[in-house]
Task: inverse folding
């Protein structure tokens, strides 16, 4: 019996192979997209879960969402907070500068170097492949490497006990770490012993530059830990060691990647898109299956006369639907496997298709649900008919017409939402990439330098002069951080006042205005001075217009005022610069100060003449090699660094764009199939109308009007939803594009045009048919 069912099922699928291909391809596309997105979501949700004590690990942060803390927090927490089993400090030197790592005559610039307490292995699950956990980082000038780095520097040799020169220090390799999982929010290649640094013996509330992690005893209430932490901060506040508004908080390790780094929004976004595409594809499947039901009525009547009972017919139709859904899953898996490399490129991940069992169980569940939904209606409907009635007249499927129309409206409403999202995200991305930021970001090369390195300080001025001798170089300056990343938090004090103004601070040299293309609106600007002549009282400041407004001055009044930044950096306001976007366009412009402090700089920025990039880079590298021979030459372009700020938006735009294309394709495939059924159902009607004198144009309009109305209704449903969603998304940007009615009108017109072209093909084909053949139909 089963063999007979399968034979009939495959025979029917082959007989109507055009509709079979449409139905199977649409569902397979939806399943493939859902599989890819499910793997992405699984990967994001698995971040940091490899740690054995993941649920009990917390990162301490300053309550203004600053992730770094003072040196005192970790040791104080172990001593004074019940329930804290271990604490570790990490200092990500790679976030400020690359380090030079040498072995023999080989040297490389490495960006993933951390200092860490030896207790880092008590907090996290970072297993050692070589070395002893308790001894690996407990001495100064020791380092552990990840396995890839050990192979890079030592090949097949045993690295433990060998030496590497990192920066200006020599380190003993005391361990080799297993490769750090890609699902760790901490990504490093080197862990240097925190005991190497001068901070190791400090326990102060200042110098907040360290990541601090606590591992709590299982069952410890984090709220009680937070309360004790608040009490410790209160004691420091009373002692005058911290500011009155200073607060510390706890961030669960399992929430850092998703919540603190903002990935949860994109998990929800991708999950919604995956479900939408799968639902759109499933709707197609159900729509086309129910539409075909009426055309098999005569077959059912004959089989009933031949002795088939209701149950046999029911399982036959349901089985056909399940076979088609299963074939669609197989095709979907093949498509997903083929598209995985491209998907990884867009997502910035290294995923494989074969995730956990839950994904495959879910996909099998989708096959069952979709197969039953697509087969149960025609199975129940046709199996219940009386054979005499079926053979005397055709069976109308109008009872399911309202369902099909509703499903078409839903499909295209979801498509409208995705199309609007694509246009808005692309428009916002184009806006942030082309907006006037208030400085000249074109033709600027950034060279990373080691901050505070005496040799670099000595080499900087002669190297700068050598670069300026190049005809292709228009300016050279040193700066702490590049525009777009200038977040340093300070307090600005005014001489004779008690108020402190929260302000961003950027150490630089005196040449930053002309090199970065900033606009000086008042004052003479910064003047060059020798580094060793800068003392408290002699600092020079450039304030932006926001800082001047916060101080209650006009730009001209600000010139010559005595101010100080955090610490004891007293000096004079030498100029006022126009406000510019020193952070991303997600954030509003706030008070900012530049101050001359060359030893606090991480980058040399070089402005080159347009059209001379190759010559300029060759000359810059020659000057670098002459004056800094012990450091490999590396560079990046400022505009490329700024584009990195919007990488998540760029990926979102790509995901939305691809999703929109697929949604339109799947929806139009379904519409094409339904139009074909509609045309077949009205063949005799079209023949009669042609005989009575109807033109081809009139017939095409007649046959297309119903579907056009459905698509118009879907736009009216989808546009308000898209508006609300995109307005919420744009709130993440302080500066954003408007949601104009023309954008929605363009999307609506595009969807209507695509749907019209899809339906018109079938309408024109039917309208051009010979009316004699049409009247012979059935």
Result:
């Amino acid at each position: 019996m089963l063999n007979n069912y399968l034979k009939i099922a495959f025979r029917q699928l082959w007989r109507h192979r055009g509709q079979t291909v449409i139905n199977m391809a649409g569902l397979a596309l939806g399943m493939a997209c859902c599989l890819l997105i499910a793997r992405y979501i699984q990967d994001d949700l698995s971040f940091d879960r490899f740690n054995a004590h993941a649920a009990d690990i917390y990162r301490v942060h300053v309550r203004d969402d600053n992730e770094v803390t003072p040196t005192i927090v970790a040791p104080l927490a172990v001593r004074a907070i019940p329930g804290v089993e271990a604490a570790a400090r990490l200092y990500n030197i790679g976030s400020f500068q690359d380090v030079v790592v040498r072995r023999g005559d080989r040297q490389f610039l490495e960006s993933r170097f951390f200092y860490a307490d030896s207790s880092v292995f008590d907090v996290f699950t970072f297993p050692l492949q070589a070395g002893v956990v308790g001894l690996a980082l407990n001495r100064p000038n020791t380092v552990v490497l990840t396995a890839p780095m050990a192979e890079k520097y030592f090949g097949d040799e045993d690295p433990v006990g060998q030496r590497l020169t990192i920066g200006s220090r020599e380190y003993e390799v005391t361990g080799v770490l297993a490769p750090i999982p890609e699902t760790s929010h901490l990504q490093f290649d080197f862990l240097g012993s925190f005991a190497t640094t001068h901070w190791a013996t400090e326990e102060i509330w200042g110098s907040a530059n360290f990541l601090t992690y606590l591992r709590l005893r299982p069952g410890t209430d984090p709220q009680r830990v937070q309360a004790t932490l608040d009490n410790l901060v209160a004691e420091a506040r009373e002692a005058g060691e911290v500011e009155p508004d200073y607060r510390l908080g706890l961030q669960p390790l399992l929430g850092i990647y998703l919540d603190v780094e903002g990935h949860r929004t994109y998990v929800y976004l991708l999950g919604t898109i995956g479900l939408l595409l799968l639902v759109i594809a499933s709707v197609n499947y159900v729509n086309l299956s129910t539409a075909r039901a009426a055309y098999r009525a005569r077959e059912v009547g004959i089989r009933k006369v031949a002795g088939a009972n209701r149950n046999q017919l029911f399982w036959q139709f349901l089985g056909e639907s399940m076979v088609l859904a299963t074939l669609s899953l197989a095709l979907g898996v093949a498509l997903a496997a083929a598209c995985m490399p491209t998907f990884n490129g867009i997502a910035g991940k290294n995923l494989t298709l074969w995730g956990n069992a839950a994904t495959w169980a879910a996909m099998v569940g989708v096959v069952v649900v979709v197969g039953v939904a697509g087969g149960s209606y025609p199975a129940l409907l046709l199996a219940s008919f009386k054979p005499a009635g079926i053979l005397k007249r055709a069976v109308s499927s109008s009872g399911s017409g309202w369902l099909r129309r509703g499903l078409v409206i839903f499909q295209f409403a979801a498509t409208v939402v995705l199309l609007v999202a694509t246009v808005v995200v692309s428009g916002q991305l184009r806006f942030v990439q082309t907006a006037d930021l208030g400085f000249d970001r074109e033709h600027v090369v950034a060279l990373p330098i080691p901050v505070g390195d005496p040799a670099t300080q000595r080499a900087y001025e002669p190297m700068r002069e050598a670069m300026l001798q190049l005809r292709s170089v228009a300016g050279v300056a040193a700066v702490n951080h590049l525009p777009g990343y200038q977040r340093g938090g300070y307090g600005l004090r005014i001489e004779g006042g008690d108020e402190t103004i929260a302000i961003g601070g950027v150490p630089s040299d005196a040449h930053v205005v002309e090199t970065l293309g900033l606009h000086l609106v008042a004052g003479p600007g910064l003047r060059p001075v020798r580094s060793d002549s800068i003392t408290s009282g002699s600092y020079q400041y450039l304030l932006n217009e926001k800082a001047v407004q916060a101080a209650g001055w006009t730009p001209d009044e600000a010139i010559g005022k005595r101010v100080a930044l955090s610490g004891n950096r007293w000096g004079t306001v030498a100029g006022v610069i126009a406000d510019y976007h020193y952070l991303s366009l997600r954030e509003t412009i706030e008070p900012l100060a530049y101050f001359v402090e060359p030893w606090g700089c991480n980058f040399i920025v070089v402005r080159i003449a347009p059209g001379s990039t190759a010559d300029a880079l060759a000359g810059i590298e020659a000057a670098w090699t002459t004056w800094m021979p012990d450091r490999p030459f590396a560079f990046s372009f400022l505009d490329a660094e700024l584009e990195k700020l919007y990488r998540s938006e760029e990926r979102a735009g790509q995901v939305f764009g691809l999703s929109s294309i697929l949604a339109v394709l799947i929806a139009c495939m379904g519409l094409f199939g339904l139009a074909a059924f509609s045309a077949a159902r009205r063949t005799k009607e079209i023949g009669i109308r042609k005989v009575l004198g109807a033109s081809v144009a009139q017939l095409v309009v007649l046959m297309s009007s119903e579907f056009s109305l459905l698509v118009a209704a879907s736009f009216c449903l989808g546009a308000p939803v898209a508006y609300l969603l995109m307005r919420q998304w744009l709130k993440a940007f302080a500066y954003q594009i408007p949601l104009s009615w023309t954008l929605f009108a363009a999307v609506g017109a595009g969807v209507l045009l695509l749907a019209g072209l899809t339906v018109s093909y079938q309408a024109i084909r039917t309208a051009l048919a010979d009316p004699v053949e049409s009247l012979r139909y059935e």
In short: The chain has a mean pLDDT of 83. The radius of gyration is 34 Å. The CA atoms of residues 472 and 609 lie 5 Å apart.
